[in-house]
Design goal:
The structure is a homodimer of 446-residue chains. The first copy, chain A, is α+β, with helices and mostly antiparallel strands. Chain A contains 21 helices and eight strands. Chain A has two domains: 301 residues, 2-methylcitrate dehydratase PrpD, CATH 1.10.4100; 118 residues, 60s Ribosomal Protein L30, Chain: A (2-Layer Sandwich).
Chain lengths: 446, 446
């Protein structure tokens, strides 16, 4: 039998970091910019307050910055909180073929160790590339059956990514790295049943904390299985059907998983994005008046209604799972950021009225990033819009400028002027800056 | 659809504690005595040192006693460590029909909250009864398929027990309790692949810490699914086949799960115990000389070879998973405590020689607590021994005196004289003593 986990551990430990290509480094910077923005943006959410309060009661020394706040806490609680924040808005990055959100469980753990150990941004960036590689390879090995069974893959495999990245920063040896992966395997976090509650963003946060804990214990000599991924009663067999372990041990360096990453232009589930873009086109290109609309018919990929079929959302969270609200927001506001999902917007009369006029039908021939929209107006005219590839999809990625704009919109109310300086630093994290140059700009003056 | 989790939460919150019968209280005291002994006994294991070192680096304030040590740490790390200690020797309690070890994931969390919040031993004891009830009902709902799939049930359902017990101590309301159970559902810990490594005892420790965290966050208003156990993508469906949720919501008070608990007389997996007892009988009753043995044939339940089939163990841990070593220890030493699994004993020439003479064969007609042993001697004579119910099984439970002797053997080297005073206190924990009367006697003077 092939030794899957040991082979993976060898790659993590031995792969020469200088062979990571420039394009992977660039994509990791883009991931960091996007991740930091969504984490800071959601950092004052009530759920963050709750965990911070608990950290204050039972947590450890002030080792790591809580993004967007004016406080530090210990590495473990900081990983949990920063990981949670970055997933609260459902606005973080996605690798579409596994629906993995790669940054949320890995970056918090990397940041924690880098800040506490005075490492450089370059070391952190490279560790993230490794962590992303590991979590996505494991996700590929166990998906789609793993996700279909009900696991929230970002939480479950995220712990491996965090353990690998932290293990890399701590310079673990082969055996320690294998043990770290074993400890991570024993702690899968995240069920899809939790979607729509505070526990969903808790998943990647806990994955970050668990992965960190795994690597820190492995460094001290803590032992685990040497075949935690591939054994008969290991992670792969227990949590999925017929896992394909080969993808985990394919040679490193030919193709980097981080290059599959994509970023959301809109603050809701990625399957709604083509519909939102079609709505925005109706407003921005065709300049229509929403009051003139008789009916909107949107043809979508089947997953859209399965995941976001809520017809009459009553609050922010429900609106994010409503393709009807998403399209309406695109038409009325020309955007779908956090503000367009606020409770008062969700219940506003013109929004409610427009939602009622929207029909969504399944078209099995469409891809997930495609949509057809047909608008009929009360003067008898019609407009048809086709979205071939939604913005933010892999074929039409957000530009660096669009990512910067998203960052500013999410953070300016909290960073109050520091956001542009922080952006310019972020583009330089491939260099050996002290990580504190990032963390010191990422807190708020509350 | 029946509301399983909400109904469970209602029972946890509403069941009148004064209706817990005296026999359940007594069994819980016996559980506590046994649990505290094994936790103190293993409290100087290298894996405990590792986690303590980490707690010192990233943990919080000194809130809770580390059993058997001269230190306190925060509630979360203390739950992890005390839970680990109590499972390291594989010498803790078992509810046989699910193979759940009920104390290891629940008592540490109860102790943490009770000590930190200055509660009484009576409150702690009652909370444990509730926690045990919850974890075992959930285990019954998902076993055997859950365990067969490869989950370590003590870790996975243990978090529910800890969350319920802590939630009871914190006086959570129905909704908070449901959310606590939801958070616990999202954090299942423990794969059977980890057996034989430090990660196995890590499972109940982490379950205790996760359950504690779940209840503490729920108290602050953190939200989760309201149907985490029964939903399509909830804990039951995702982690088992055809779960039987009815057992979770059967009325409370007719039958208490703690009454199913049993305690190990020997420091290894429970399936080996009938074999050990047969070996002890050979020594104690028949007074044979091991050197005269030609061959030993042991007929066992099929699970024995599946779980403990290691023929040539090389160290303590492997010996615990070797029915061959277990029987040999019974024959040579007349006991199988920690000392009979020490590395030097495992490798001792007479032990190795006797192990080689032992053959183990499966007999499908035997129950798990039964064994047939046939000894042939070099003078031509034979002895046959039948164990109908092994000591420590539910039909032949350890007496209070035997539990006290086990406690003393495990703890006297650490407590150095305090052990008898502690035992007498433990029999009084049904009264409203400050919990500190227990914890202050449970540390060491290092």
């Amino acid at each position: 039998m092939k030794r899957i986990t040991l082979s993976l551990a060898e790659n993590i430990v031995d792969f020469p970091l200088n062979l990571i290509p420039e394009e992977a480094i660039l994509e990791s910077k883009r991931s960091f910019l996007n991740w930091l923005g969504v984490a800071i943006g959601a950092s004052h959410h009530p759920s963050v307050d709750m965990v911070l309060e608990l950290a204050n009661e039972i947590g450890g020394p002030p080792q790591v910055t809580i993004l967007g706040r004016n406080i530090k806490t210990d590495m473990q609680f900081a990983s949990l909180i920063n990981g949670m924040s970055s997933h609260i808005f459902d606005f973080d990055d996605t690798i579409l073929n596994t629906v993995l959100h790669p940054s949320a469980p890995v970056w918090p753990a990397v940041l924690a160790v880098a800040e506490h150990n005075n490492l450089t941004t370059k070391e952190a960036l490279e560790a993230f590339v490794i962590g992303c590689e590991v979590e996505q390879r494991i996700a590929l090995a166990i998906c789609p059956s793993h996700y279909e069974r009900g696991w929230h893959v970002t939480g479950t495999v995220g712990a491996f990514g965090a353990a690998a990245a932290v293990g890399k920063l701590l310079k673990l040896d082969h055996l320690q790295m294998t043990n770290a992966l074993g400890l991570a395997a024993a702690q899968p976090t995240g069920l899809r049943e939790m979607f729509g509650t505070m526990t969903k963003p808790f998943h990647p946060g806990k994955a970050a904390a668990n992965g960190l804990l795994s690597a820190l214990l492995a460094q001290k000599g803590f032992t685990s299985s040497l075949a935690p991924l591939e054994a008969k009663r290991g992670f792969g067999q227990v949590l999925s059907e017929n896992p394909n372990f080969d993808v985990i041990i394919e040679p490193w360096g030919n193709k980097w998983q981080i290059l599959e990453n994509s970023y959301k232009p809109f603050a809701c589930g990625i399957v709604t994005h083509p519909g939102i873009e079609a709505g925005i086109n109706l407003k921005d290109i065709h300049n229509i008046n929403p009051a003139d609309i008789d009916e909107i018919v949107v043809e979508v990929h089947p997953l859209v209604l399965e995941l976001t079929g809520k017809e009459t959302p009553q609050n922010q969270l429900e609106a994010k799972f409503s393709i009807f609200h998403c399209v309406a927001a695109g038409i009325i506001f020309g955007k779908a950021s956090e503000a367009q999902f606020a409770d008062n917007i969700v219940l506003r009369e013109d929004v409610v009225n427009l939602r009622k006029k929207i029909k969504v039908i399944i078209n099995n021939s469409l891809m997930e990033d495609q949509v057809l929209l047909h608008a009929k107006f009360n003067k008898g005219n019609t407009i048809n819009i086709t979205i071939e590839h939604a913005i933010g999809s892999k074929d039409k990625p957000m530009t660096n400028t669009e990512l910067e704009e998203k960052f500013i919109e999410l953070t300016s109310g909290i960073l109050k002027g520091k956001e542009r300086e922080l952006i310019s630093k972020i583009w330089k994290i491939g260099k050996s800056l002290p990580i504190t140059e990032i963390t010191e700009l990422s807190n708020s003056q509350e």
